[in-house]
Protein backbone atom coordinates (compact mmCIF):
# COMPACT_ATOMS: atom_id res chain seq x y z
CA UNK A 1 0.00 0.00 0.00
CA UNK A 2 1.46 3.36 -1.02
CA UNK A 3 1.63 6.32 1.32
CA UNK A 4 0.99 10.04 0.86
CA UNK A 5 4.14 12.13 0.75
CA UNK A 6 4.39 15.20 3.03
CA UNK A 7 2.50 18.29 1.89
CA UNK A 8 4.32 20.66 -0.43
CA UNK A 9 3.52 24.22 -1.45
CA UNK A 10 3.27 24.34 -5.24
CA UNK A 11 1.66 26.25 -8.06
CA UNK A 12 -1.45 24.13 -8.10
CA UNK A 13 -5.03 24.61 -9.29
CA UNK A 14 -3.99 27.43 -11.63
CA UNK A 15 -7.01 26.63 -13.80
CA UNK A 16 -9.12 28.26 -11.08
CA UNK A 17 -7.32 31.56 -11.76
CA UNK A 18 -8.23 31.83 -15.47
CA UNK A 19 -11.51 33.69 -14.95
CA UNK A 20 -15.22 33.36 -15.60
CA UNK A 21 -17.49 35.22 -17.99
CA UNK A 22 -16.43 37.35 -20.94
CA UNK A 23 -17.55 40.53 -19.16
CA UNK A 24 -14.75 40.79 -16.61
CA UNK A 25 -12.32 38.94 -18.87
CA UNK A 26 -12.79 41.75 -21.39
CA UNK A 27 -11.76 44.13 -18.60
CA UNK A 28 -8.51 42.31 -18.01
CA UNK A 29 -9.78 40.54 -14.91
CA UNK A 30 -10.69 43.77 -13.09
CA UNK A 31 -14.20 44.41 -11.77
CA UNK A 32 -14.25 42.17 -8.70
CA UNK A 33 -15.78 45.03 -6.72
CA UNK A 34 -18.86 45.55 -8.94
CA UNK A 35 -19.61 42.18 -10.57
CA UNK A 36 -23.36 41.58 -10.26
CA UNK A 37 -24.19 38.39 -12.12
CA UNK A 38 -23.81 34.64 -11.60
CA UNK A 39 -20.05 34.88 -12.20
CA UNK A 40 -19.78 36.63 -8.83
CA UNK A 41 -19.67 33.12 -7.38
CA UNK A 42 -16.24 32.86 -9.00
CA UNK A 43 -14.95 36.45 -8.68
CA UNK A 44 -16.49 37.65 -5.43
CA UNK A 45 -19.19 35.55 -3.71
CA UNK A 46 -20.30 38.46 -1.51
CA UNK A 47 -21.62 40.22 -4.64
CA UNK A 48 -24.08 37.43 -5.47
CA UNK A 49 -26.82 39.34 -3.63
CA UNK A 50 -26.54 42.03 -6.34
CA UNK A 51 -27.95 39.91 -9.16
CA UNK A 52 -30.88 41.88 -10.62
CA UNK A 53 -33.37 39.03 -10.76
CA UNK A 54 -34.48 35.97 -8.85
CA UNK A 55 -32.18 33.68 -10.79
CA UNK A 56 -29.11 34.26 -12.92
CA UNK A 57 -27.52 31.80 -15.35
CA UNK A 58 -24.15 32.16 -17.10
CA UNK A 59 -22.20 30.03 -19.60
CA UNK A 60 -18.78 30.57 -21.14
CA UNK A 61 -16.55 28.70 -23.58
CA UNK A 62 -13.02 29.45 -24.73
CA UNK A 63 -10.16 27.62 -26.39
CA UNK A 64 -6.41 27.95 -26.03
CA UNK A 65 -3.37 26.89 -28.03
CA UNK A 66 -5.20 26.71 -31.38
CA UNK A 67 -8.07 24.74 -29.88
CA UNK A 68 -5.88 22.16 -28.16
CA UNK A 69 -7.11 23.09 -24.68
CA UNK A 70 -10.72 23.93 -23.88
CA UNK A 71 -12.03 25.93 -20.95
CA UNK A 72 -15.71 25.84 -19.98
CA UNK A 73 -17.63 27.57 -17.21
CA UNK A 74 -21.25 27.39 -16.04
CA UNK A 75 -22.70 29.43 -13.19
CA UNK A 76 -26.05 29.68 -11.44
CA UNK A 77 -27.24 32.07 -8.73
CA UNK A 78 -30.51 32.17 -6.82
CA UNK A 79 -31.93 34.74 -4.39
CA UNK A 80 -34.47 33.24 -1.97
CA UNK A 81 -34.97 36.74 -0.57
CA UNK A 82 -33.65 40.27 -1.09
CA UNK A 83 -30.74 39.88 1.33
CA UNK A 84 -29.50 36.34 0.63
CA UNK A 85 -28.11 34.48 -2.39
CA UNK A 86 -26.66 31.07 -3.15
CA UNK A 87 -24.76 29.94 -6.22
CA UNK A 88 -23.02 27.07 -7.98
CA UNK A 89 -20.11 27.40 -10.41
CA UNK A 90 -18.72 24.58 -12.57
CA UNK A 91 -15.30 24.87 -14.24
CA UNK A 92 -13.48 22.49 -16.57
CA UNK A 93 -10.11 23.00 -18.25
CA UNK A 94 -8.97 20.06 -20.34
CA UNK A 95 -6.97 18.65 -23.19
CA UNK A 96 -9.02 15.84 -24.71
CA UNK A 97 -8.26 13.01 -27.13
CA UNK A 98 -4.61 12.59 -26.13
CA UNK A 99 -3.19 9.47 -27.88
CA UNK A 100 -2.22 6.70 -25.49
CA UNK A 101 0.63 4.79 -27.14
CA UNK A 102 1.65 2.64 -24.17
CA UNK A 103 0.22 -0.41 -25.95
CA UNK A 104 1.44 0.56 -29.43
CA UNK A 105 3.95 -2.30 -29.56
CA UNK A 106 2.66 -5.77 -28.82
CA UNK A 107 4.49 -8.62 -27.10
CA UNK A 108 6.02 -9.74 -30.42
CA UNK A 109 7.49 -6.31 -31.14
CA UNK A 110 4.96 -5.42 -33.82
CA UNK A 111 3.60 -1.87 -34.14
CA UNK A 112 -0.16 -2.04 -33.73
CA UNK A 113 -1.94 1.22 -34.46
CA UNK A 114 -5.24 -0.39 -33.58
CA UNK A 115 -4.02 -0.58 -29.98
CA UNK A 116 -3.84 3.20 -29.66
CA UNK A 117 -6.51 4.64 -27.38
CA UNK A 118 -7.12 8.17 -26.13
CA UNK A 119 -7.54 9.88 -22.79
CA UNK A 120 -8.14 13.34 -21.31
CA UNK A 121 -6.12 15.46 -18.95
CA UNK A 122 -8.77 17.51 -17.17
CA UNK A 123 -9.04 19.84 -14.20
CA UNK A 124 -12.53 20.34 -12.79
CA UNK A 125 -13.83 22.49 -9.98
CA UNK A 126 -17.16 23.05 -8.23
CA UNK A 127 -17.75 26.24 -6.23
CA UNK A 128 -20.68 26.36 -3.81
CA UNK A 129 -21.36 29.99 -2.88
CA UNK A 130 -23.32 31.84 -0.22
CA UNK A 131 -23.82 35.59 0.23
CA UNK A 132 -25.76 37.73 2.68
CA UNK A 133 -26.35 41.41 3.34
CA UNK A 134 -25.45 42.49 6.87
CA UNK A 135 -27.21 44.93 9.16
CA UNK A 136 -24.60 47.54 8.23
CA UNK A 137 -25.94 49.45 5.19
CA UNK A 138 -23.88 48.69 2.08
CA UNK A 139 -21.93 45.80 3.64
CA UNK A 140 -22.35 42.21 2.48
CA UNK A 141 -20.34 39.05 3.05
CA UNK A 142 -19.93 35.76 1.21
CA UNK A 143 -18.01 32.51 1.05
CA UNK A 144 -17.16 29.63 -1.28
CA UNK A 145 -16.64 25.96 -0.65
CA UNK A 146 -14.42 24.58 -3.43
CA UNK A 147 -14.26 20.97 -4.56
CA UNK A 148 -11.55 20.05 -7.06
CA UNK A 149 -11.08 16.91 -9.15
CA UNK A 150 -8.09 16.54 -11.48
CA UNK A 151 -7.13 13.54 -13.54
CA UNK A 152 -4.83 12.41 -16.31
CA UNK A 153 -6.67 9.54 -17.92
CA UNK A 154 -6.54 6.47 -15.71
CA UNK A 155 -2.96 7.16 -14.71
CA UNK A 156 -3.36 9.80 -12.01
CA UNK A 157 -6.09 11.62 -10.14
CA UNK A 158 -6.45 14.10 -7.31
CA UNK A 159 -9.23 15.33 -5.05
CA UNK A 160 -9.06 18.76 -3.46
CA UNK A 161 -10.94 20.98 -1.02
CA UNK A 162 -10.70 24.67 -0.11
CA UNK A 163 -12.50 27.77 1.14
CA UNK A 164 -12.85 31.39 -0.02
CA UNK A 165 -14.19 34.35 1.99
CA UNK A 166 -15.28 37.78 0.74
CA UNK A 167 -16.76 41.09 1.83
CA UNK A 168 -18.04 44.07 -0.16
CA UNK A 169 -19.03 47.60 0.77
CA UNK A 170 -20.86 50.18 -1.32
CA UNK A 171 -21.03 53.89 -0.58
CA UNK A 172 -22.25 56.54 -2.98
CA UNK A 173 -20.80 55.61 -6.41
CA UNK A 174 -17.94 53.60 -4.92
CA UNK A 175 -17.71 49.83 -4.57
CA UNK A 176 -15.01 48.24 -2.40
CA UNK A 177 -14.28 44.57 -1.84
CA UNK A 178 -11.85 42.10 -0.30
CA UNK A 179 -11.67 38.47 -1.41
CA UNK A 180 -9.48 35.91 0.38
CA UNK A 181 -9.01 32.86 -1.81
CA UNK A 182 -7.88 29.51 -0.44
CA UNK A 183 -7.87 30.98 3.08
CA UNK A 184 -7.01 27.62 4.66
CA UNK A 185 -4.96 26.41 1.70
CA UNK A 186 -6.62 24.23 -0.92
CA UNK A 187 -5.40 20.66 -0.62
CA UNK A 188 -5.06 18.24 -3.53
CA UNK A 189 -4.31 14.61 -2.70
CA UNK A 190 -2.72 12.89 -5.72
CA UNK A 191 -2.67 9.14 -6.35
CA UNK A 192 -1.07 7.27 -9.25
CA UNK A 193 -1.78 3.89 -10.83
CA UNK A 194 1.78 2.69 -10.88
CA UNK A 195 0.94 -0.64 -12.53
CA UNK A 196 -0.09 1.25 -15.68
CA UNK A 197 3.09 3.37 -15.68
CA UNK A 198 5.78 0.99 -14.47
CA UNK A 199 6.92 -0.36 -17.86
CA UNK A 200 7.03 3.01 -19.58
CA UNK A 201 8.92 4.67 -16.72
CA UNK A 202 11.40 1.80 -16.56
CA UNK A 203 12.12 2.01 -20.31
CA UNK A 204 12.66 5.79 -20.13
CA UNK A 205 14.78 5.67 -16.99
CA UNK A 206 12.37 7.77 -14.94
CA UNK A 207 11.32 7.26 -11.36
CA UNK A 208 7.72 6.36 -10.66
CA UNK A 209 5.78 9.28 -9.14
CA UNK A 210 4.86 9.08 -5.48
CA UNK A 211 1.42 9.79 -4.09
CA UNK A 212 1.56 13.35 -2.83
CA UNK A 213 -0.33 16.27 -1.33
CA UNK A 214 -0.37 19.69 -3.02
CA UNK A 215 -1.31 22.90 -1.25
CA UNK A 216 -2.58 26.02 -3.03
CA UNK A 217 -1.43 28.95 -0.90
CA UNK A 218 -3.82 31.80 0.04
CA UNK A 219 -4.29 34.88 -2.13
CA UNK A 220 -5.87 38.22 -1.20
CA UNK A 221 -7.70 40.44 -3.71
CA UNK A 222 -8.47 44.05 -2.84
CA UNK A 223 -10.63 45.86 -5.38
CA UNK A 224 -12.33 49.19 -5.93
CA UNK A 225 -14.59 50.57 -8.64
CA UNK A 226 -16.50 53.78 -9.28
CA UNK A 227 -19.45 54.63 -11.51
CA UNK A 228 -19.41 57.84 -13.54
CA UNK A 229 -22.60 59.15 -15.14
CA UNK A 230 -21.88 61.12 -18.34
CA UNK A 231 -25.46 61.76 -19.44
CA UNK A 232 -28.83 60.04 -19.44
CA UNK A 233 -27.58 57.31 -21.79
CA UNK A 234 -23.84 57.03 -21.16
CA UNK A 235 -22.03 55.87 -18.03
CA UNK A 236 -18.61 54.44 -17.23
CA UNK A 237 -17.48 51.97 -14.56
CA UNK A 238 -13.76 52.17 -13.75
CA UNK A 239 -12.22 49.27 -11.82
CA UNK A 240 -8.92 48.45 -10.14
CA UNK A 241 -7.98 45.10 -8.58
CA UNK A 242 -4.79 44.19 -6.71
CA UNK A 243 -3.90 40.54 -6.17
CA UNK A 244 -1.60 39.85 -3.22
CA UNK A 245 0.37 36.58 -3.21
CA UNK A 246 2.56 35.44 -0.33
CA UNK A 247 4.94 32.79 -1.66
CA UNK A 248 7.61 35.24 -2.87
CA UNK A 249 8.22 33.27 -6.06
CA UNK A 250 6.35 35.21 -8.75
CA UNK A 251 7.60 37.62 -11.42
CA UNK A 252 5.35 40.48 -10.29
CA UNK A 253 6.01 44.16 -10.94
CA UNK A 254 5.42 45.12 -7.29
CA UNK A 255 7.34 42.71 -5.02
CA UNK A 256 7.43 43.68 -1.35
CA UNK A 257 9.57 41.11 0.41
CA UNK A 258 7.74 37.78 0.21
CA UNK A 259 4.54 39.54 -0.92
CA UNK A 260 3.81 40.01 -4.60
CA UNK A 261 1.24 42.53 -5.87
CA UNK A 262 -0.41 42.07 -9.28
CA UNK A 263 -2.49 45.05 -10.52
CA UNK A 264 -5.48 44.75 -12.86
CA UNK A 265 -7.12 47.81 -14.41
CA UNK A 266 -10.30 47.92 -16.51
CA UNK A 267 -13.30 49.93 -17.56
CA UNK A 268 -16.80 49.42 -18.96
CA UNK A 269 -18.66 51.96 -21.11
CA UNK A 270 -22.43 51.52 -20.95
CA UNK A 271 -24.89 52.91 -23.47
CA UNK A 272 -28.62 52.88 -22.66
CA UNK A 273 -28.14 49.72 -20.56
CA UNK A 274 -28.05 47.49 -23.65
CA UNK A 275 -24.64 48.08 -25.28
CA UNK A 276 -21.33 47.66 -23.44
CA UNK A 277 -17.72 48.25 -24.52
CA UNK A 278 -14.87 47.10 -22.31
CA UNK A 279 -11.10 47.37 -22.04
CA UNK A 280 -8.61 46.19 -19.46
CA UNK A 281 -5.01 45.31 -18.75
CA UNK A 282 -3.73 42.59 -16.44
CA UNK A 283 -1.19 39.80 -16.04
CA UNK A 284 1.73 42.19 -15.52
CA UNK A 285 4.95 40.21 -15.23
CA UNK A 286 8.69 40.81 -15.23
CA UNK A 287 10.18 38.22 -17.59
CA UNK A 288 13.95 37.63 -17.46
CA UNK A 289 15.52 38.62 -20.82
CA UNK A 290 18.58 37.30 -22.60
CA UNK A 291 20.41 40.55 -21.76
CA UNK A 292 20.08 39.87 -18.05
CA UNK A 293 17.40 42.51 -17.59
CA UNK A 294 13.75 41.93 -16.80
CA UNK A 295 11.23 42.79 -19.52
CA UNK A 296 7.73 44.00 -18.67
CA UNK A 297 5.04 41.69 -19.96
CA UNK A 298 1.32 42.50 -19.88
CA UNK A 299 -2.00 41.35 -21.31
CA UNK A 300 -4.43 43.91 -22.78
CA UNK A 301 -8.01 42.74 -23.35
CA UNK A 302 -11.04 44.08 -25.19
CA UNK A 303 -14.71 43.20 -24.82
CA UNK A 304 -18.17 43.88 -26.19
CA UNK A 305 -21.57 43.10 -24.70
CA UNK A 306 -25.19 43.28 -25.86
CA UNK A 307 -28.36 42.98 -23.81
CA UNK A 308 -31.74 42.07 -25.28
CA UNK A 309 -34.45 41.88 -22.65
CA UNK A 310 -33.22 39.26 -20.15
CA UNK A 311 -30.44 37.88 -22.37
CA UNK A 312 -26.84 39.08 -22.35
CA UNK A 313 -24.21 38.07 -24.92
CA UNK A 314 -20.63 39.01 -24.14
CA UNK A 315 -17.44 38.65 -26.15
CA UNK A 316 -13.82 39.18 -25.09
CA UNK A 317 -10.55 39.10 -26.97
CA UNK A 318 -7.66 38.51 -24.59
CA UNK A 319 -4.05 39.49 -25.21
CA UNK A 320 -4.71 42.11 -27.91
CA UNK A 321 -1.52 42.73 -29.88
CA UNK A 322 0.06 39.50 -28.63
CA UNK A 323 1.97 41.32 -25.88
CA UNK A 324 1.73 38.51 -23.35
CA UNK A 325 3.57 35.19 -23.24
CA UNK A 326 0.11 33.58 -23.28
CA UNK A 327 -1.56 33.21 -26.66
CA UNK A 328 -4.68 35.24 -27.35
CA UNK A 329 -8.08 33.67 -26.98
CA UNK A 330 -11.64 34.44 -28.05
CA UNK A 331 -14.18 34.14 -25.24
CA UNK A 332 -17.93 34.05 -25.60
CA UNK A 333 -20.40 33.95 -22.73
CA UNK A 334 -24.17 33.84 -22.50
CA UNK A 335 -26.24 35.08 -19.58
CA UNK A 336 -29.94 34.84 -18.77
CA UNK A 337 -31.72 36.67 -15.94
CA UNK A 338 -35.01 35.41 -14.57
CA UNK A 339 -36.82 38.26 -12.83
Which CATH architecture? Beta Barrel
Strand content: over 45%
The average pLDDT is: 89
Rg over CA atoms, rounded to whole Å, is 22 Å
Summed up, what is this model?
The chain is mainly beta and 339 residues long. Helix content is 6%, strand content 58%.
Notes on the protein architecture:
With 339 residues, the protein is mainly β. It has a single domain (7-253, 285-338), classed as Porin (Beta Barrel). It is built from three helices and 18 strands. It has helices spanning 22-25, 40-43, 194-204, and strands at residues 7-9, 55-64, 69-81, 84-100, 117-133, 139-152, 156-171, 174-181, 186-192, 212-216, 219-229, 234-245, 254-256, 259-271, 275-288, 294-308, 311-318, 329-338. A hairpin with a 2-residue loop joins strand 13 (254-256) and strand 14 (259-271). The longest helix has 11 residues, at 194-204. The chain is globular and about 80 Å long. The N and C termini lie far apart (55 Å). The relative contact order is 0.18. The model is unreliable at 321-326 (pLDDT under 50).
Could you name the key traits of this structure?
339 residues, Porin, 14-stranded antiparallel β-barrel, 6% helix, 58% strand, globular
List the helices and strands and how they pair.
Blueprint: E1 7-9, H1 22-25, H2 40-43, E2 55-64, E3 69-81, E4 84-100, E5 117-133, E6 139-152, E7 156-171, E8 174-181, E9 186-192, H3 194-204, E10 212-216, E11 219-229, E12 234-245, E13 254-256, E14 259-271, E15 275-288, E16 294-308, E17 311-318, E18 329-338
Parallel strand pairs: 1-10
Antiparallel strand pairs: 2-3, 2-18, 3-4, 4-5, 5-6, 6-7, 7-8, 7-9, 8-11, 9-10, 11-12, 12-14, 13-14, 14-15, 15-16, 16-17, 17-18
